[in-house]
Amino acid sequence: MKTNVLFELLLFTLCAALSAFAQERETVDLWPDLAPNETVREPSVEASPGAAVRVTTPYLIICRPEKQTSDSCVIIFPGGGFVSCSYDDGGIAHAKFWNSTGRFSAVLVYRTPRPKSGPIYLPALQDAQRAIRYLRANADKYGIDPDKIGAQGFSAGGCLALLAAVNSETNSYEPIDKLDETSAKLAFSIPVYPAYVLDDGAKDANTNRGEGANVLPDFHFDAQTPPMCFLHGDADVYAPLGSVEAYKRLRKMNIPAEIHIFAKAPHGFPHWVDYPNTTGWRDRCAAWLDKMGF
Predict the structure, then answer these.
(1) CATH number for 172
(2) What predicted TM-score, i.e. pTM, was given to this entire model?
(3) Which residue in 235, 241, 252, 294 is a FRET match for 145, CA 20 to 30 A apart?
């Protein structure tokens, strides 16, 4: 009898915990109807759980901390080469870390795959700007400061975090409603091994390790460009010189910036356990945000 009671108590506790956990997540569609240049509105197609390979209806996954002690917000832009969007291990896993620091977070599941023509990032940038506007317009609802919304992105998502940070004065789509009157400015950006930054490697890995390459003209580095923290591995096929050149641009503009280049670390180093020099990368991001007042 005691065993059954204990089992029921444990089951009740587990169910309550799962229920509480589930309540901390919600999804928000970004566009009231069709997203820009889309002709259908349909559920995402996934190659595996948490990895979307076809998204026509982009959305935000809202991730609230158990105890919110900060009024800043970190939007996560997952990677996937703009061919897929790895929103679970490349998104929610990182949101959980920010939640553990008391910060509100959200994961953007942006449109994929790449468009057949035009800039490979354009649909994703449209979704990113719309997501920033949504969070700013709903800051009171989520208990965040509208002027403390920043982004962290990985690989293609790192490219997106950089693009969104330097292009807030350039609208990537025609306004569709009142929400689009809201600013898409970011307060900070943390590009992690950003891809597609240099003209040597605009759509793929760098062919000459980025040597002698220039930052693509799509990165406008406008007057609203915020402070940034870059992390990159020096063994990355998407050359760390992309981060270095972007960092140099910021320094010329007297915008506070920090950069970490990890020796012998490859692309995607957060997913590997055999690079001991990179294990503290998350803590470096958090320490930087603390220093910057976010």
Answers:
(1) 3.40.50.1820
(2) 0.91
(3) 252
d(CA 97, CA 77): 14
| β-bridge partners, 192 | 154, 231
Beta strands 257-262 and 228-233, pairing class: parallel
On whether residue 3 sits in a domain, the answer given is: no
Q: What is the reported pLDDT for 7?
A: 35
Query: How far does the chain reach from its first CA to its final CA, in angstroms?
Result: 53
Structural domain for 144, as ranges: 26-292
Cα–Cα nearest to 226, from 278, 150, 118: 150
What's the length of the chain?
A: 294
Rounded Cα distance between 121 and 84, Å, is 12
What is the pLDDT, as a whole number, of residue 24? 58
Distance between CA 156 and CA 282 in Å, rounded?
Answer: 19
Going by their DSSP bridges, the two strands 104-109 and 59-63 should be labelled as antiparallel
How does the average pLDDT of the chain come out, rounded?
92
Alpha carbons 229 and 292: distance in angstroms, whole number: 10
Given the DSSP bridges, would you call strands 73-77 and 59-63 parallel, antiparallel or unpaired?
Answer: unpaired
User: Is residue 143 assigned to a domain?
Assistant: yes
- Separation between Cα atoms, residue 63 and residue 21, nearest integer Å: 10
Number of domains the chain contains: 1
Nearest C-alpha neighbor of 247 from the set 222, 265, 221: 221
Pairwise CA distance, residues 215 & 193, whole Å: 15
pLDDT tens digits, residue range 248-266?
999 999 999 999 999 999 9
Residue 220 domain flag: yes
Residue 165 has pLDDT above 90, yes or no: yes
